[in-house]
Amino acid sequence: MKKTLLLLLPCMALLTGNAVHAQQVVTMNDDEVQQHKSRFADLKKTFATDEALPQFPGGDAALMRWLRDHLRYPKTAAQFGIEGRVVVVFVVGTDGKVSEVKVAKSVDNDLDQEAVRVCKMLPKFIPAHDKSGKPVAAWYTLPITFKLPPRQITPSGN
């Protein structure tokens, strides 16, 4: 008998207030719950929640431009027409550096690896800070959508 469990990923619950961040409720069976528990067991650190969250220098538009300029569509995924949204979580440290990059929602191994590769290259963020203005580490959730351009069909010359 499969049980259904609503599980709010801890990393999603910590981030709000930004258009690219969204809490997600995921329905999973027992096996999937155990898999996610082990995957996110190390996320039990205390980080900023309702204080000022980390920001990419220049805001969300600058982050989207940076991703567009640095992402490379994996050849194998492109050949097979694989598309989707990979959700990556990572820590923005008190110094603004990105660390602990993890895939929270997978699409395809090649797309996942590319998303992680690019996130590990991200420049320093403006770190989160508490009410007193002291920088604190915070989890950041970043959905990265991989979409192939529409194929153009050319008429065959008879």
Morphology: elongated
**Category by helix and strand content:** alpha+beta
Q: Stretches where pLDDT falls below 50 for ≥5 residues? A: 1-29, 43-48
Tell me the quaternary state. single chain
Q: What pattern of helices and strands is seen along the backbone?
A: EHEHHHEEHEEE
Structure description:
The protein is an alpha+beta fold and 158 residues long. The chain is elongated, with a radius of gyration of 18 Å. Helices cover 28% and strands 24% of the residues. Strand 3 (84-92) and strand 4 form a beta hairpin. The chain has helices spanning 10-13, 30-39, 59-70, 75-79, 109-121; strands spanning 5-8, 25-28, 84-92, 98-105, 128-129, 135-136, 138-146.
What's a concise summary of this model?
The protein is 28% helix and 24% strand. The radius of gyration is 18 Å and the shape is elongated.
Write the layout of secondary structure elements.
Elements: E1 5-8, H1 10-13, E2 25-28, H2 30-39, H3 59-70, H4 75-79, E3 84-92, E4 98-105, H5 109-121, E5 128-129, E6 135-136, E7 138-146
Antiparallel strand pairs: 1-2, 3-4, 3-7, 5-6
What attributes characterize this protein structure?
three-stranded antiparallel beta sheet, elongated
